[in-house]
Structures are given as C-alpha cells and as structure tokens.
Write a sequence for this structure.
C-alpha cells in the first residue's frame, strides 16, 4: 500500500520538476517540496501517504525530479514497513525519478501556466513514459507548482498490496507541490 503512495509522490515530484524547468532559472526552496499519494480498495478503503525531501535537479537538457521513497509515510508504521520492504523494495530502489526534456516544457506566460508534459518515470527499476498534469502560479520571485498523475503500479513491476484479504486497486494517484525561487 505504501508502494502506491511512493509512486504517487514520485509522479508529483516529476510534475514539479517540469514546472521548475519552465521558470528557469529557479531553485526548489528547501523544505517546500512535498509529495502525496492515494490508493483505494474495497469497501471505501483509502490509503494516503505524504513525504518530503523532493529534489529538483536541472541537468541542462532535462529536469529531473527525485522523490526519496523511504521518506513516505502513511501514518501507520507497520503499513509503512510492508510498503517499503516488501512492495517498493526501497533498499534496492530508494528513489523515484521523473525525467523531462527541457524542450518539452512550455514557458510560463502572464504569471501562470497549466497543462501536461511528457516525461519518463523511473520507479522500482523500471522506466515508463508518463504524462503528468501541472499548474504553476507566480509567487514572489518564483513559482508555486502543483503536479499530479495516476499510475498503475503493475507497470513498474510492483506487486499489488494485499493484507488480510484486502487488496488495493493497482491505480495510484500522485501529487506534488513545491515553491521555486529565482537565483
């Protein structure tokens, strides 16, 4: 179940990186990058998680958003342990990364922008093409960015979590939010 959360966080972080790239030069403000995920199951089961420590890396021709999966938490330590050790295998795959080519990012006009961007999500040792949506709004000398996307954990080789006969759905919603500042 934490696998879903981590996947969502990774995707959100990726979307955030896209937004940061569109306002270059910009930096992620320390402590401002967060990620969230949400997974559902039978009978109204809803599992949500949050994490911090999202890093946006400007590599010139691409923007890379790195989400430390081990920093995600659902608020239930046993669930977190199962998510990290059994499903997400954070010992082998500690981060989720979204890679976005700079040329695919639209420039921000009029202090705001929204849309989608094509990228590559690296999660659990697999890479898949993804299309996160985002919005960016001018905030001081930088931008406040929100991003979101849905993924199917099975596409990344992640086993669908099941506990005591309760199995979550393989689709996970991921969101990320952060503020950039000018150089």
């Amino acid at each position: 179940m934490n696998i879903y959360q981590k996947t969502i966080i990774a995707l959100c972080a990726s979307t955030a990186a896209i937004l940061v790239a569109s306002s270059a030069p910009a930096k992620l403000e320390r402590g401002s990058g967060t990620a969230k995920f949400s997974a559902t199951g039978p009978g109204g089961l809803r599992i949500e998680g949050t994490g911090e420590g999202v890093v946006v890396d400007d590599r010139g021709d691409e923007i890379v958003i790195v989400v430390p999966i081990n920093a995600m938490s659902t608020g239930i330590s046993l669930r977190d342990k199962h998510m990290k050790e059994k499903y997400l295998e954070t010992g082998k795959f500690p981060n989720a990364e979204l890679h976005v080519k700079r040329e695919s990012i639209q420039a921000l006009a009029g202090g705001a922008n929204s849309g989608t961007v094509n990228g590559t999500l690296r999660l659990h040792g697999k890479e898949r093409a993804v299309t996160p949506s985002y919005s960016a709004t001018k905030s001081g000398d930088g931008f406040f960015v929100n991003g979101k996307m849905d993924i199917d954990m099975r596409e990344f080789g992640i086993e669908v979590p099941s506990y005591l006969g309760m199995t979550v759905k393989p689709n996970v919603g991921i969101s990320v939010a952060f503020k950039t500042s000018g150089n």
